[in-house]
Amino acid sequence: MNQPIALTDSAALARNRARASDDALFLQRAARDEVEDRLEMVNKAFHAPAIVTAFPQVWQDRIDGATIVPETETLAISPSEHDVVIHGLGLHWANDPVGQLIQCRRGLRPDGLLLATAFGGQTLHELRSCLAEAEIAETGGLSPRVAPMGEVRDLGALLQRAGLALPVADAVKLNVEYKSMWHLMRDVRAMGEANALVARQRTPTRRSVLTKAAEIYARSFPNNAGGITATFELIVLTGWAPDESQQKPLRPGSAQARLADALRTDETSLPD
Q: Which secondary structure element, helix H or strand E, spans residue 232, and what is its range?
């Protein structure tokens, strides 16, 4: 089997995360809160949870009896050991996101629940566009700066590829205000989310590029307080380990009643 091409420099990602500031992990906590809200809506008690995360302090004492699993390419999850597995906000950095989900599924008991969170494609779209415009204008070229992040539909399809049943994907957008692009970039580094791409530029970015990008950002995406707005999109993926007790879709044509009758309306055939 061919291995996925590595997009993320794992060593650089580990260095970035090691330098992260706990005060800046508010998005990790927002993702955690989204997961906890969804767990509360499930009419089922869980007794053997596992949490895959690079920031265990975010999850400390939040879910009773949870096993904390370091977020690595190969996850330390034993087969069929857990009734719920949570993959914290880090799937967007995985070189093999499907492989991560498959490993989580294998760790689930039948009818076990997987909840995974990741940054979606709208995350930092303002910063990306401003940096790209400035770099092209100043250097005539463009270098990769942000990890490729999937759209909600694409990420939802990964659940099916991983063999999970009843897949659901939804997005939550968070708009965060900053004084300037410089404050935003400082916060991104403090989150441990700085550029860790294999193909990243290894020399410092020209000051003129950053200055121009900051000017474009302030002009294009202002907020009412005189600063800027940044978008972060959280994708929440939900799926279940297959089990015979789960609901199955009906065969096409097997319905015993007409939709028109249920809606008390007339059915009209469309022309060919």
A: strand 228-240
